[in-house]
Amino acid sequence: MSTPLQQAIEIIGVKKPTRGIAIVADRCGVSYQAARKWFNAGRLPRTEWTGETRYAEIIEAATDGQITRQQLLSTPARSESATPPGTVVIPVVTPERRAEERRDHERRDDERRDAERRGSRGRASK
Predict the structure, then answer these.
(1) May I ask the CATH class of domain 4-76?
(2) Dihedral of CA 15/17/19/25: which sign?
(3) What residue ranges do the domains of the chain occupy?
(4) Mean pLDDT of all residues in the chain?
């Protein structure tokens, strides 16, 4: 079963994926290797969902609307089991998690400073 991106690349390449990959790479301004990586993964890069790029719009235009931007972006994220062996998965740190880690760090710093003050007072009185 092929994904909307793979279908789009086949449409663009007139049933020849390697040709479609080359055309997509050229129109999107990326290397052939990058476009091949998208084809093999069956999805566009993360930057498409964060709004940093507009590859889906370019590909939709290249297929004359046969595959829409919405279809290209409906491809689900890869599951953990689909991660190739040896791949390092970096977890996403949410702003809430970052704030929690900052509070924990500040609390540990405060506790360390308090312990140092108590220790220096005890030595001064002897």
Answers:
(1) mainly alpha
(2) positive
(3) 4-76, 90-126
(4) 85
